[in-house]
Write a structure and sequence with these properties.
heterodimer; A: 152 residues; five-stranded mixed barrel; three-stranded antiparallel beta sheet; B: 358 residues; alpha/beta; Peroxisomal Thiolase, Chain A, domain 1; ten-stranded mixed beta sheet; globular
């Protein structure tokens, strides 16, 4: 059968549920809206960022929330030369696992940089938030991380 | 036996069949693609659907874009009069595990397990994002290639691998696939030529990625008399376990696979010599992580079928690993094999199945 003879139809599958984010994830997203980061204290005093209601390794309940960041180091990174349509940045950028100052785990986000040669594991970055009026309490309130010293 | 995952009741991989793995099959729906595979897996041992006590499948609604799509796929088997059936929204390797548990409970003596998926129907970079943490990860739309590039970079930074290692794995896999007529990507290209590929997401070049594959696979399991009647050389599952790690990507050491190591321990991989391993490592660097976690040495033939770098039909690629490993034992090319399946981002969840010839 030739390609032109095959019938095609657009179909959109959605699960349009509203979810409550709860006391830990909600606190993190609220802090993002305020332009800051919080983590949760897990087992053996480790600070989990982004925080979950349980320690991701032991399953124990987490304790108090603590302030972390806004600077941190790159644990790993991947260079995207051709951003996809839903990516947070529409110019070449890096995905990175960033371990914020004061945190023992890393968070995934974009790092803006002029090119892959400007980046390295262990490089220091800092948060660049969206303008306050545009923040809604989501991961997108953080526009990206940028290299400390302003290389981007 | 003391270890929870060791086989109490022997179960045999009695028959295996898979479709031709192709980049795009847009002429047949899921049931139409499955039907010949189901017919073949039964015909191999001369049985019909009436000879199995249980049917279990693995697939995902997100590929077809419609709810309960596995119900329609049952038409490939035909379930009238009504019969015992189940489904997992996972690779078929986990459907096989569910059936195996029913065997252990003594509920059944024979089962059909199948899996199917048409990866070509949508954009996998967007679809697979939906398996991620819905608050912290999915809203950023990190695609599966980028996440695996983070894992590959972590391997390189840790001194555990180089880009040349990834190319060597890709080259070997697709060369081995030349002897697998069902494989999709089959060619003999040297690693240094592959290293001239462009990066898709650095440090992953084109060759380190799996192909996008439409396909389906099926296995018949049997115990007791049926296992002996349906096979001249039964292939027994002698160890079986699966384990999962946290979904918080940044809380994991991406260069190791403790879930695979734990599953391998419970399944008893180290209790005997391993002749071959079929590893479900869709991205080249992942083979190194899983081989280390399984404790394999250089004498083990890894992915003689070509593995998922040669054909990666979503939802069946793990089940196919079990089928390929069993086929080699049945053919007398191996006595003991390990099959592995993975699920989730960056090897989050892993299943280990130990197979032995009679």
């Amino acid at each position: 059968m030739a390609e032109s003879e095959v019938l095609h139809a657009e179909h959109r599958l959605e699960y349009p549920y509203a979810r409550s984010t709860g006391p830990i994830i909600g606190a993190f997203l609220t802090a993002l809206r305020e332009g800051r980061f919080v983590g949760a204290t897990g087992s053996e005093g480790k600070v989990i960022v982004p925080p979950t209601e349980y320690d991701p390794l032991t399953g124990d309940d987490v304790g108090e929330l603590v302030e972390v960041g806004p600077g941190g180091v790159i644990d790993s990174w991947a260079w995207v030369s051709h951003p996809l349509r839903k990516h947070p940045l529409q110019v070449p950028f890096a995905w990175a696992l960033v371990r914020l100052d004061g945190a023992d785990t890393a968070m995934l986000h974009a790092v803006a940089a002029p090119g892959p040669e400007a980046l390295a594991t262990g490089a220091r970055v800092t948060a660049k938030f969206c303008p306050e009026a545009e923040r809604v309490g989501s991961m997108a309130d953080l526009e990206s991380f940028v290299l400390e010293g302003g290389a981007a | 036996m003391s270890a929870a995952g060791r086989t109490v009741r022997p179960v045999s991989i009695a028959s295996f069949a898979q479709s031709q793995n192709v980049r795009k099959d847009n002429e047949r729906n899921e049931a139409e693609g499955l039907q010949p595979v189901i017919a073949e897996v039964f015909a191999n041992v001369g049985i019909t659907k009436d000879d199995v006590d249980f049917i279990c499948s693995g697939s995902t609604d997100y590929l077809i874009g419609g709810p309960f799509s596995f119900v329609m796929a049952l038409d490939a088997v035909g379930v009238w009069p009504p019969r015992a059936e189940s489904h997992v929204e996972m690779d078929g390797a986990w459907a096989l595990y569910e059936a195996w548990v029913l065997f252990q409970e003594g509920e059944i003596d024979a089962a059909l397990v199948y899996a199917f998926g048409r990866s070509s129907l949508g954009d996998l970079n967007e679809i697979l994002t939906l398996q991620l943490d819905p608050y912290y990860e999915a809203p950023l739309w990190p695609d599966i290639v980028s996440l695996n590039a983070l894992q590959a970079r972590a391997m390189i930074d840790a001194g555990k691998a180089t880009e040349a290692d990834f190319a060597a794995i890709a080259s070997r896999s697709r060369r081995d696939a030349l002897s697998n007529p069902k494989a999709q990507v089959r060619h003999d290209v040297a690693p240094d030529v592959l290293l001239e590929d462009d990066y898709v997401v650095a440090p992953l070049r084109r060759h380190a990625l799996p192909p996008i594959t439409d396909g389906a696979a099926a296995i018949v399991l049997a115990a007791g008399d049926k296992a002996l009647q349906w096979s001249e050389r039964p292939v027994w599952i002698t160890g079986f376990d699966h384990r999962m790690e946290t979904h918080s990507l940044g809380a994991r050491d991406l260069t190791v696979s403790p879930s695979t190591a734990k599953a391998a321990e419970v399944a008893g991989v180290a209790d005997g010599n391993v002749d071959i391993a079929e590893i479900h490592a869709p991205f080249a660097h992942q083979e190194l992580i899983i081989a280390e976690a399984l404790g394999l040495d250089d004498s083990v033939a890894v992915n003689p079928s070509g593995g998922p770098l040669a054909a990666n039909p979503l939802m069946s690629a793990g089940l196919i690993r079990i089928g390929e490993a069993a086929s080699r034992i049945r053919a007398g090319q191996a006595d003991r094999a390990v099959a592995h399946a993975t699920s989730g981002p960056c090897l989050q969840q892993n299943l280990v199945c130990v197979l032995e010839g009679a």
